[in-house]
Amino acid sequence: MDASSPKPPPAEAGPVEVEPLDLKGRRRKGKGAGRSDALATGERGRVSVTQANPLALSRQEMGILSKRLLVLALSDVTRDDSDLAPIRITAWEFAQLFNIKGKSIYSRIEASARELLEQTVQIKEPNGDWVMFQWVSEARYEGGQGGKGQMASIELKIHDKLKPYLLQLRRDFSIIPADQLLSFESFNSMRLFEVLYTASYAGERPRLTFDVDDLKLRLGLDGKYERFKDFRYVLDRAQEEFKRYTCLTFAYEASKVGRKYQRVSFEIAKNDVFKPRIRLPASLAKRIPGQQDKQRLIKELQALDALREIGWAQDPERTVQRFGAERVVRIVDYARKLQARAEAAGRPIYNLPGFVNSLLTQGVEPPEQEPAQPQSAAALTRDEARAIASSIVDGYHQARKRAAQEAWDAMTPENRELVHTLMQATLHRFTLERVAAEGWTGPLYETKRLDVMASHGFVTFPQHLRDLEGYVATLDLLAEYPPDARDLIRAEIEEAS
């Protein structure tokens, strides 16, 4: 096993006394002194902050917004990087993270860049000395004043002095899930999570003891909360947020030396029931460098704008993540066209957001080929009618397949086995042999599985997907054609089906 591989923490007979930072430079010994074993926790593929343990356990003091912006920037750095390249954070990402709406995003992103430039970190070095750095050496604001597709952003340059604590890490580092970090509503709670997560090996070391003043130092609270009962408020709030948002929970107990509370001990446990409050923008989880990244983010921004323009009441980011930016834009545009046709025909669609939601969730897709509006049947050739009909029929079948696949994905193993049993009992012998030869996968298997599921009540199709005629009528797919042209297309639909 190489030095960068995760290792289990050493077995502990009792609480680990965490070595104080001691910013005056006097190295005090404790049970945790001199520890150099590797710490590599976290989940591969998740957005995370990877940092050397001295950085995670450092003294930090800043506002919650600055800390969140910093976490967002650090999540773009990996321990295998060779250099600290500038990190661009778009206005869209910023808005999603801070729940900022409207045009205030552009002033807030500027202000946050300036604020972060002023923040420092104090790190205890292996020899007992301590050093202080700025987090960011340069911040650049790239304008964009709110027009659709315009990508205002901050470009941040992490200070080069932090390279040893972020790059080419092979030992003594932690990987902290960013979505959990960013879920905290308090800076103190966020910092306590970093400290306990790192010192406990992500919960593998269950008992920790801190000097009270030292713990407050790490949280940027030195000189504050002189009475421990006031400091309890910080710990109690963090305790509740841990339970709701993170993979760890803790209990704590303070002990006195004389009349003063001198130490606080933590019992760390794994938390299996939690839900991060923050859903990171998909762009962070799957960054594509350069121009591709920008174009993809523009599409996501356009999708969000499209949803907000129609009065979308649900979480627009979640909708974009679920259905994809391009499909959201395509469906909203299609719904607007259908709305215009319905209004012209005297059948207005009063709930456009609800209609869009129905199209998205039911798997409806607009015809791939948007035909020009012919003036007469003569303007529409047989081949053109056949192409339009083929597109409509294909859209219908694809929508039914998606609905059936969603029903299949939601099935219990017992019901899936029952469907396969019914297929074996009802399919023609030659069809069954083909399905078996293809390993019960592929288009034929999916088609026959759909038929069995539909005929035995395992999937319930919405009204517009129960038959092809209803599909055409519900979506009013032939509304823009004159009567003779509609008849021609309907004939081709019957032929194609």
Blueprint of the fold:
Elements: E1 16-17, E2 48-52, H1 53-56, E3 59-60, H2 64-74, E4 87-90, H3 91-98, H4 104-117, E5 120-124, E6 130-134, E7 136-142, E8 153-158, H5 163-166, E9 173-177, H6 178-181, H7 187-199, E10 207-211, H8 212-218, H9 228-245, E11 248-257, E12 260-270, H10 282-285, H11 291-309, H12 316-323, H13 325-344, H14 352-361, H15 382-409, H16 413-426, H17 429-437, H18 443-455, H19 468-475, H20 483-496
Parallel strand pairs: 1-10
Antiparallel strand pairs: 2-9, 3-5, 4-8, 5-6, 7-8, 10-12, 11-12
Helix pairs in contact: 2-4, 7-9, 11-13, 12-13, 13-14, 15-18, 15-20, 16-18
Description:
There is one protein chain. The strands form four sheets. The chain has a four-stranded mixed sheet. Strands 3-5-6 form a three-stranded antiparallel sheet, with no helix packed on it. It is 46% helix and 13% strand. It is α+β, with helices and mostly antiparallel strands. The chain has helices at 53-56, 64-74, 91-98, 104-117, 163-166, 178-181, 187-199, 212-218, 228-245, 282-285, 291-309, 316-323, 325-344, 352-361, 382-409, 413-426, 429-437, 443-455, 468-475, 483-496; strands at residues 16-17, 48-52, 59-60, 87-90, 120-124, 130-134, 136-142, 153-158, 173-177, 207-211, 248-257, 260-270.
